[in-house]
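cache lookup: miss for this entity combination. No prior model stored, computing from scratch. Input as submitted by user K.M.:
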Amino acid sequence: MDKQLIETLKKNYDRYLKQMTDFLSIPSISSDSTHKADVRRAAEWLANDLKNGGLEHVQILETAGHPVVYADFLKAENKPTVLCYGHYDVQPIDPIDKWDTDPFNPIIKDNIIYGRGTSDDKGQVFMLAKMAETILLAKGDLPVNIKFCFEGEEEIGSAHLDEFVDDHLDLLKADVLLVSDTTMLSMDQPAVSYALRGLCGLEIELQGPKGDLHSGVYGGAVQNTLHAMVELLGTLHDNKGHVTVDGFYDQVAPLTDEERTTCEKLSDDEALKNELGVDTLYGEEGYPTVARIWSRPTLELNGLFGGFQGEGLKTVIPSTATAKITCRLVPNQDPALIGALLTKHLNEHLPSGVKLDVRLLDHAEPFSMPVNHPALQAAHNALEEAFKTKAILSRQGGSVPIVNTFHDKLGLAPILMGFGLDSENFHAPNEHFHLKNFDRGLHALIAFLYDLPKQMN
Amino acid sequence: MDKQLIETLKKNYDRYLKQMTDFLSIPSISSDSTHKADVRRAAEWLANDLKNGGLEHVQILETAGHPVVYADFLKAENKPTVLCYGHYDVQPIDPIDKWDTDPFNPIIKDNIIYGRGTSDDKGQVFMLAKMAETILLAKGDLPVNIKFCFEGEEEIGSAHLDEFVDDHLDLLKADVLLVSDTTMLSMDQPAVSYALRGLCGLEIELQGPKGDLHSGVYGGAVQNTLHAMVELLGTLHDNKGHVTVDGFYDQVAPLTDEERTTCEKLSDDEALKNELGVDTLYGEEGYPTVARIWSRPTLELNGLFGGFQGEGLKTVIPSTATAKITCRLVPNQDPALIGALLTKHLNEHLPSGVKLDVRLLDHAEPFSMPVNHPALQAAHNALEEAFKTKAILSRQGGSVPIVNTFHDKLGLAPILMGFGLDSENFHAPNEHFHLKNFDRGLHALIAFLYDLPKQMN
């Protein structure tokens, strides 16, 4: 980053922090209809800030829900176009009594800013806006073409984003998707992800006797629906943590030697045990911990219930039992095929005396891009410059549904360059964001825009 | 039953029905503190009715909860003393919208009386009162000595009965306990029970990571508490329905040939499948259905829960999982020993990555008396006289905790001569009672009092 940019950042830093505080003060809770006007107010604040920062074609675009804020600056002829995504809505603040400060009156203490949305994602949306503003202030133009698409519904499942993208394919056309809504590996270890796990979720219900039965009057005579559920779910894994659904691993891209080495290096089992409060970790035998999260599929029970849940005992044989299951999928697994294999397995292993209902719910394709993709290289270089350490080419254990949206509809390769930390309490009380990563992140984002055209040449 | 008794019954029948309706109209819901005065009102009604019926020493005896109604008639020198037990409290009426009639405005239709408490147990308590009143009206004295002990807390676990019995050992001293709070095998098949299953109940909780985890961020790295629960619970039965807890069956009294034959005769699997709405029955291999309910112990899951239970999916790895378990026990199993064996098994089979907490809850000894007990013979004769068919010497799959109380504290052999039917919706909306069994039951109760001194001579 040249002297002129560094000076501009320095000169405007206090103003930026003041503006960020203003933005964070707006309670843009998308899930709460009583905050509908606040969500719009945040959109308006953001649109206004982009306009003041020199962006063009600033618009608040309506959806059936909360609006999208769009802006662009498209004057870099023959240079790549970067579409920047983030969300200006935030999570609810319950339980409010667990907050040490007012969630919508941001406080800076020890170079950490506390408040709802600081790390997820208003703080990072604000960084994307200031990335452009800083360069425009210093240089009058940008090294790439840039578009902003900031949505107000990410915390409610991006309810209208698919529709919005479908309706604005031309407006959103770009070469690269830049997303600042993820986390770094640790305080001083930046990362850029090239793969995300997908998802296949389902709910299964077993129906035994037509009503709950008294276990004294009928116990021993009839299948207990919970016993059947335990037996059925017990067939899904072997005792080494492998999923035993026939064909489940058939399409899994094997770990390369390099990936395995990286995962081994990054697996700090002692630290993770300590973080989670467990004596031992557990998972698929034969893979280091990080590989089990990044590169191997899982089948997890997320919820299980049937029968009596109150205090003490109720001697009932339950009529029904329900389980919620999600598989995390990796390249090249197909969510629809996995759903079908799992349904087949469940039917084939159904214990006697119960009926099975399988309801397929959410699904998301796993995602990956070539590790030598030029945009990844630019991100890597930019992070190294800003953080003075090599970034790790990482994967993510979760899925980021909007990545699938933009990839599937616009063919965009996503650069997930986020500056939050897992420990920063997003979705929880006392959410916060380290300003040290605001500074270094802003540096990295600017450096990325400068390096990208070189790599994509 | 002689002519004089038959005439007395006939003459007083309409009055009896009118009185029963009055008694049933009092909403004596013991679990609901807003009905505390109603419970007392039911006790007063009953005490008054016993007094009017010629009983002596009628008292409302206080407990720390709802009172006990006591009465006696002790003028049959050198004859056995029968202690009659029943309860005048009733279950709540929720869900009220499922009732076709007002639960506390009893209606008679097609010789069936509808209302809360008709079969469980105010209707049957009323029969015990009228049994004595009818004989006293006809004869001026009774063929045995009789005591009544009607409690108001059976539906809340007889919370203060143990204490009450301890405090009134002399008052309650008797030779035989007569209980009318059970069911017949079917409309025209009376039964008298000589054995009850006992109970050993516990709750287990598994604790994995210290909080719920995101299945994308951590899935694959750490034990899923629900998987551990499924694995652990899966070790409790084999695939033939046997309990696999070491030593579980060691003390079980084997089925005699006669019992097996009776059970085979009484097992109507098609009817039971139809009643329960299942395609197939299930249970311990090698035993007919009725034997599995009456004479074999079980280990049942009554409740199981952990993780997300709402609509759709939440990709969480749950921190805790809980299971509620009860074992139905048969002679000569010891609930304390079974609890210890089960705790040992659970600890020995605990999957890695979770901690186990076992909380022992309710327990009840299994009960049995010799099938040739003279009081059983008297009951058998009385039922045959009233129902014109041989009564079946049966067992009960459930436990009747008050039987243990009276047996352990007063050494009483229980005669469980009940006239309800399993299909009469006790504890449910539209509870009802067949007046045909009111008539035949009252006949049987009177006949029992006459035959008992002959058998016990």
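stored under new cache key. Residues 3-24 of chain B form the longest helix (22 residues).
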